[in-house]
Design a protein that fits this description.
Distance between the termini: 38 Å
Structural class: alpha/beta
Helix content: 55-70%
Number of helices: 21
Strand order of the largest sheet: 8-9-10-5-11-12
Oligomer: single chain
């Protein structure tokens, strides 16, 4: 159930999908982050062995971590040798040799540490490059799935969160964490008492890590939900800026935004306070432990149970043993956010699985058949189209009429494959739509929806559907068929005019005619136009009629959904819909004759249904 937020008398849905979070046992933290990285290629259909770059990066990071943690012993052993050998013997050459050797090891450690960080950075980029194409496909496919319409740009933010965590300092603590027993073991070799003291400190820091996980998880979840709701409200306000400004809704929406923002900041602050406070406690605990080990070492020296060098070496080594835990606590919020992002991406990928490769089929050119199609909107429960069947041959043009909410636009979405029928099938030349790849099917279809959206770019790019190296003649031919060529050449830069986001630089009629040219680009076999004349003047409607006639003349199929009769001038078939069902189908002359014609196209289906002719094909 989607959480809701009440602000005053306003009840808004938190447009966000939070994956179920389960606590990760501390002992498996390093395994968890490793699994998260290793699982990335599996999501895109490969495993690590089939992605050599990622596999090599993981191996390199593991080797670098091993070398760095071994080289971390340099300081401890250098101090021990200085206090136990160089100082008692007063041997300057020994001191110089030890110092030179330590310097060489430190330089090597620095070079390896830099290399590890660079490998992590490039591994993060590789993860992004592998997942980015699929994340982009999610943005266009999730709104068409059940429960995916409210996700917005969250998949992009999730991918950014994962990449930033992998490229930052967060993974270093997890990579060094498995070496903590190694350092504790060396502390036990120095003296059992020193080992016990270091182990006690490790237990304390581990408890702090668990407390951090428990106390920050809820606040991070809430902050994520509220952040999604805040972004959703901001995006809605941006899209509807004209409405907000014209009707003075800004002052009314502002309190809603302020309340959301305050709740978001409060949740973030709670998480930061807990993580920061426990991080400070862990730092103080580590420093206290280091001093305690120093004092314990001094006591052992006084008792003659350890050498003077053990004092410094044990202090440095115990601090190093607990450093990864401190680093993990400091980066716990980033780790939790990355883990949540990974869970959401996996969930969203499961909603939109990759299409399997299909055998290439020839472009359709003969018929469209709709066989008992029933439709339920994504996330809905009630069928909006029920058992619609008809067949159109090449060279036909169908007009779909009926009252509002009769299922006309929903049927149009099924005809172009945007919505999948819950029952029945749509076929082109006898093959169901899912037997074509999306690229091949897209070339065979032209679609003009009611809600016209153009993309930031030039007029030519929008008409050509952003095809790379588009044929200029094909672009101009589509514009001429839509009757928009003369209008385009009068723009400041003609076809190279940038139209702004959503076509902001164009009028409603201009956007609709350019969108019509986009639907006609490439001479698609099936052209579906939903209310194509809603923003057109007389000249535009005449161009629309010519475009439909041209589709028929080149043996294509045109389907027009309209309330105004002027859009149906060039069609030869009529489908009357009411209450989601087909009430009549047949030649326009029979369906629209005075004896059978409803009082208006928009009222078709009101009152007594129009009978279907004997050869209508309605089932």
């Amino acid at each position: 159930m989607r959480p809701r937020l009440r602000v005053g008398s306003t009840d808004i849905g938190i447009a966000y999908n939070v994956a179920d979070e389960r606590s990760v046992p501390l002992g498996r933290l390093n395994e968890t982050i490793g699994n998260m990285v290793r699982a990335v290629p599996k999501i895109i259909g490969d495993d690590v062995r089939q992605v050599p770059e990622l596999g090599r990066a993981l191996v390199a990071v593991g080797l670098f971590s091993a070398l760095i943690n071994v080289l971390y012993l340099t300081g401890s052993f250098y101090m021990m040798q200085v206090y136990d050998r160089a100082i008692p013997s007063r041997n300057i050459p020994t001191l110089v040799a030890l110092s030179v050797l330590a310097l060489i090891l430190y330089v090597g450690q620095c070079a390896i540490d830099l290399s590890r960080q660079r490998v992590l950075s490039r591994m993060a980029r590789l993860v992004d490059e592998r997942l980015s194409p699929r994340v982009f496909r999610l943005l266009s496919r999730l709104p068409l799935t059940s429960g995916g319409a409210a996700i917005g740009l969250q998949p992009v933010r999730d991918l950014d969160q994962i990449r930033n965590f992998l490229a930052g300092g967060g993974p270093l603590g997890f990579l060094d964490l498995p070496w903590m027993p190694f350092y504790l073991g060396i502390c036990f070799l120095f003296h059992p008492a020193i080992g016990v003291a270091a182990l006690a400190g490790a237990v304390i820091l581990l408890c702090l890590t668990i407390i951090t996980q428990v106390m920050t998880r809820k606040s991070i979840d809430v902050a994520t939900q509220l952040g999604g709701a805040r972004m959703s409200l901001g995006e809605s306000s941006r899209r509807n800026a004209e409405v907000v400004a014209a009707m003075g809704m800004g002052e009314r929406l502002s309190p809603v935004w302020d309340k959301l923002n305050q709740m978001y900041l409060d949740a973030n602050q709670r998480g930061n306070d807990v993580a920061g406070g426990l991080g400070g406690v862990s730092r103080v605990a580590r420093m206290a432990l280091q001093s305690g080990v120093l004092g314990l070492g001094a006591y052992l020296v006084i008792q003659g149970e350890a050498s003077a060098g053990v004092i410094i070496a044990a202090s440095i080594l115990s601090a190093r043993a607990l450093a990864p835990v401190e680093l993990v606590i400091a980066n716990w919020k980033g780790f939790t956010s990355a883990r949540q992002s990974w869970s959401r991406l996996r969930h969203n990928f499961s909603l939109c699985p990759e299409q399997n490769a299909t055998l290439p089929l020839p472009m359709p050119r003969s018929a469209l058949s709709v066989e008992g199609v029933s439709l339920v909107p994504p996330g809905g429960q009630r069928a909006v189209v029920r058992d619609v069947s008809f067949r159109l041959e090449a060279g036909s043009a169908l007009g779909i009429v009926g009252p509002s909410a009769s299922g006309k636009s929903s049927l149009a979405r099924a005809l172009v494959g945007v919505w999948r029928p819950v029952r029945g099938v749509v076929r082109l030349d006898g093959a169901a739509l899912d037997q074509w790849s999306s690229e091949t099917l897209g070339s065979a279809l032209g679609y003009l929806p009611q809600d016209i959206q153009l993309f930031e770019g030039t007029v030519a790019q929008n008409i050509s559907r952003f095809e790379q190296d588009a044929d200029p003649e094909a672009v101009i031919r589509a514009a001429e068929q839509a009757g928009v060529h003369e209008m385009v050449v009068q723009l400041p830069n003609g076809y190279e005019t940038r139209i702004g986001e959503g076509g902001a630089a164009l009028s409603g009629g201009q956007k609709q005619r350019i969108a019509l040219a986009r639907a006609l680009y490439g001479d698609p076999f099936l052209v579906v136009l939903d209310e194509p004349n809603s923003n057109l003047d007389t000249e535009g409607e005449q161009a629309l009629t010519r475009a439909i006639a041209n589709v028929r003349a080149r043996s294509g199929i045109a389907i027009v959904i309209a309330h105004r009769p002027s859009a149906l001038a060039a069609i030869n078939q009529i489908l009357v819909m009411a209450d989601g069902a087909a009430k009549a189908f047949g030649p326009k002359e029979q369906i629209m004759r005075p004896a059978a014609q409803p009082r208006s196209l928009s009222g078709a289906g009101e009152g007594k249904p129009v009978p279907a002719p004997a050869n209508s094909g309605v089932s």
